[in-house]
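Progress narrative, Year 2. Work on tRNA 2-selenouridine synthase from Phorcysia thermohydrogeniphila advanced from sequence curation to structure prediction during this period.
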Amino acid sequence: MELVREVTVEEALSKGFKLVDVRTKEEFEEFHIPGAVSVPLFSKEEREEVSKVYYEKGEKEARLFALKLIGPKLHAIVSRIREIREREGQVAVYCWRGGMRSLAVATICNLTGVHVFRLRGGYRAFRQFILKRIEEISENLKVVVLYGPTGAGKTRILRELKEEGYPVVDLEGLAGHRGSVFGGIGLKQPSQKMFDAYLWQELERLKGAPYVLVEGESKKIGKLFIPDAFWRAMERGRKLLLTLPLEERVKVSLEDYGVGDFPPSVYLQALSRIRKILGEEKYSHIKSLIETEDYKEAVKELMVNYYDKLYSRSTPETEYTVEARTLQDAKEKLKELLSSL
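Result:
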């Protein structure tokens, strides 16, 4: 009789298995399968201790030592997984590669009558699966890319359109970054693996849509990279340009970046990264504006002397231009244009 049955990533996802991650809390927080529940077999310190025994005394001694560590916790672990199974239905447990941790937990669960599956290949198999799926979906994906200078409200408009049911992938939202030198203030980026998983989820959700609407980005958003296949789809996509008057863009930027929510030192630290590009005179002027908390004028100066120049060099040739006076006007004109594409 087979004590532990395995299920593939494809089967687990298509049949709605609830996934249980038995890696450490720290591993889970860095990356995991979206929707999974963390039920760690070891703490970070315990895992390090087991590894040390393994390298010093061998596999047999490491397994005995591991059993000593997890023995007192087994009842709580199995009880937690039983609760998940009773609430969610079929359960599959996984670790990094479908190794000893997931095998141990699945074996103990099944021996005690809590029947679970083990995810074949663990998280690594899931990652291979989603990277392949991103490539497959992106190959024939029709992408509409919205460009526009800083403060044009692209992100806000796209998020409002998403709420209205438009097929939007919010890359900056997934990446936890606004895509500029000041874009990481107040935000935390996920790991590259989590970003890829979030993007895969969105592409699966929208795979039947006539097009996918995204904001024009560089290939790197903060510390994260857009996967090659999806980046190629963006490059060959239809490109739209959104423009707003400078004063309106300053207003939008002040709101969207939460300017003033942090002390001047936070903004000065970001400003220092473009000091050489601005030159000493402009840098000193903007620095003085930030120090005196004249943020409206500081943002205006940054747009004129940095962002607009950068955007004019990096924006590709666009097919359509949406000229608007306000954000609401821009959104309505964009909706009208999208209906004709």
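The chain has 17 helices and eleven strands. The chain has two domains: 5-128, 140-340.
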